[in-house]
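QA checklist item 7 of 12: single-chain prediction sanity check.
[x] sequence parsed
[x] length recorded as 162
[x] structure emitted
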Amino acid sequence: MVACDAIAWTIGEPVLCLRGGINRVTGRQSRIEVHAIVAARGAIPSRAWRHEPALSNPKLFARDRFICAYCGHRFHEQDLTREHIQPTSRGGRDHWMNCITACRGCNHRKGNRTTDEARMHLLYLPYVPSLHEDMILRGRRILADQMEFLLASVPMSSRLHA
């Protein structure tokens, strides 16, 4: 991309310096500095930049900070479940706005009822993460300057700022 002048801009300090051959005429060695964040010129957005991120349990639990929406206790991932506010058997969708994190005990207690029927109230509301927030929720290693860039684009109302 550097050799083809296909980089529109970069952010942060270079994270790697690649050295090439030595020019016989000038005696200078070629080098390419690689940045953590690179924007490609003329890139076509991929499927990853769809309007809404895909829902998965690990991302849902991370969005909700591993806290049960009913009892408010923090749990390990293996002790959590995806809870549908409006049960799927009663027309509820498997969607960010209908799913919250619940411990196994609370999920079992609510069962196939609505929150009103079960007399269980949500301690927090669900929301659809932004695409930048989704990158953070995936749990991959993110360098400090990349995290700074991503968090700048995450709404202040996000739980990631808590």
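[x] summary fact logged: The first helix runs from residue 57 to 63.
[ ] second reviewer sign-off
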